[in-house]
């Protein structure tokens, strides 16, 4: 029980109520003691009135008056004259004097605590003001033990009352915590456990019902998290299914393209000039398609294979990309500009670099053609001691905000309607596999610029490829 929320609330409530009662108990005991002593002074003054009525009273009557007032003697001061009104033998010397004429609160508290802790039977003197202007001063001597016994009884009553109040308060708080906090929290926990068993089931997503603001905020946050997680799990499941389907299609397509590759080898021996000019392009395209199918199958098993580094001519790769895209935009007013040094040689995987550049140029071409306006795509390469840099610019409409937020995320960063957004993801993975970086430099209504940076150091490739 002590480990539960409601149990700890119960224990803390009892402790706090008892502490509050302690702060109430001390001044209340001091007040009780003051009232007790003032009452004794008043009763002693009333007993002395018998002497004023009759100057001569019998010793038996005087003893009875003092016994009823619970004092040993009474001294009155009127007109600066101190008069012993009533008296009887005192069993022991006076050990303390208490002045009840306007005492401070701290004095009353200190005297009350001293009376409680001192078990000795003492004779004390009490001084105060007479009631109803009965004189200047009244003084009595009395036994302190009855006062201490009365204080102890009063303290026990306060303790029992405090315990009763604590139990009632703690019980009410316990029930309130159970109804307002513990039960709703257990409900949230049950919802979380049910959701954990079947996170793909949207019916297990929590429906906020709490009336407490903080708990409802927690339920709202939990619902948002569960909704996002369920959506992510569904997307991953679909991607897994899509990956399996792509692997099967790639396997069969590779076989078909391999057969087509055999036929293109014979076409190359044709004497037709047009066939001789187009056949190498066709052979290169089919070869790349076969490689793409093989790498797709490899990706389905593990990941994109590590690049096979060799010395490649960048101008040749860019030329192949542009030739392919010129054919795709043969009847569209689209121009290509390339500023690639003819002798620039990179240390890279030629096929993977071709795919990365091809995806970027193809995206630029499709974006321009979607506008229906003429456009231009430019490629420029420079190098320094550390990196090779290739800049790809276009005059397209720029990337929308959603595409910028999910730029390198599959199936979320697509620009065209029906697009998957895989082109940039694949290009970024291929460049990263070389230890390089693909980044968006700028995008606006006037066009978009991407930058590919490849390192010249061998050490930069290893961790990125992994």
From TrEMBL:
> Does Magnesium show up as a keyword for this record?
no
Kindly state which reaction or reactions the protein catalyses. Answer: ATP + protein L-histidine = ADP + protein N-phospho-L-histidine
Question: SMART domains of this UniProt entry?
Answer: HATPase_c, HisKA
Its chief place of residence is: membrane
Please state every residue range assigned to the domain named Histidine kinase.
248-458
Which Pfam family, just one, is annotated for this protein? HATPase_c
- Can you say what this protein is called? histidine kinase
Where does the record say this protein resides? Membrane
Its Enzyme Commission number(s) read: 2.7.13.3
InterPro entries hit by this protein:
HATPase_C_sf (IPR036890), HATPase_dom (IPR003594), His_kinase_dom (IPR005467), HisK_dim/P_dom (IPR003661), HisK_dim/P_sf (IPR036097), Sig_transdc_His_kin-like_C (IPR004358), TCS_sensor_his_kinase (IPR050428)
The residues that cross the membrane are 6-30, 158-181
Give the EC class as a word. transferase
Superkingdom in the source lineage: Bacteria
């Amino acid at each position: 029980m002590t480990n539960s929320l409601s149990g700890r609330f119960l224990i803390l409530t009892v402790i706090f109520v008892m502490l509050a009662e302690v702060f109430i108990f001390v001044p209340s005991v001091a007040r009780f003691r003051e009232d007790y002593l003032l009452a004794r002074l008043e009763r002693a003054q009333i007993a002395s009135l018998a002497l004023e009525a009759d100057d001569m009273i019998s010793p038996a009557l005087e003893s009875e008056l003092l016994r009823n007032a619970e004092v040993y003697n009474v001294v009155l001061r009127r007109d600066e004259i101190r008069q012993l009104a009533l008296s009887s033998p005192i069993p022991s010397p006076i050990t303390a004097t208490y002045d009840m004429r306007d005492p401070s609160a701290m004095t009353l508290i200190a005297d009350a605590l001293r009376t409680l802790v001192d078990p000795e039977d003492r004779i004390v003197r009490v001084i105060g003001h007479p009631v109803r202007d009965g004189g200047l001063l009244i003084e009595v001597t009395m036994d302190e033990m009855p006062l201490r016994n009365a204080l102890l009884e009063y303290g026990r009553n306060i303790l029992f009352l405090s315990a009763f109040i604590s139990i009632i308060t703690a019980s009410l708080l316990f029930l309130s915590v159970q109804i307002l906090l513990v039960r709703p929290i257990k409900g949230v926990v049950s919802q979380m456990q049910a959701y954990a068993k079947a996170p793909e089931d949207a019916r297990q997503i929590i429906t906020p019902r709490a009336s407490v603001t903080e708990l409802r905020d927690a339920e709202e946050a939990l619902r948002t998290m569960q909704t996002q997680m369920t959506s992510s799990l569904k997307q991953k499941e679909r991607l897994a299914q899509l990956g399996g389907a792509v692997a099967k299609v790639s396997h069969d397509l590779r076989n078909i393209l391999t057969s087509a590759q055999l036929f293109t080898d014979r076409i190359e021996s044709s004497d037709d000039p047009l066939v001789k000019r187009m056949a190498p392009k066709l052979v290169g395209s089919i070869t790349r398609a076969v490689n793409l199918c093989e790498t797709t199958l490899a990706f389905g098993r593990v990941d994109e294979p590590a690049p096979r580094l060799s010395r490649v001519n960048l101008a040749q790769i860019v030329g192949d990309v542009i030739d392919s895209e010129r054919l795709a935009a043969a009847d569209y007013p689209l121009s290509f500009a390339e500023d690639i040094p003819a002798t620039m040689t990179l240390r890279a995987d030629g096929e993977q670099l071709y795919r990365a550049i091809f995806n970027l140029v193809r995206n630029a071409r499709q974006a321009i053609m979607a506008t229906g306006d003429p456009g231009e795509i430019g490629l420029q390469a420079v190098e320094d001691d550390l990196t090779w840099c290739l800049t790809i610019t276009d005059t397209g409409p720029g990337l929308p905000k959603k595409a910028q937020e999910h730029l390198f995320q599959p199936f979320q960063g697509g620009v065209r309607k029906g697009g998957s957004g895989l082109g940039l993801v694949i290009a970024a993975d291929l460049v990263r596999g070389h230890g390089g970086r693909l980044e968006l430099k700028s995008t606006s209504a006037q066009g978009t610029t991407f930058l590919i940076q490849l390192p010249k150091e061998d050490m930069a490739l290893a961790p990125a490829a992994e």
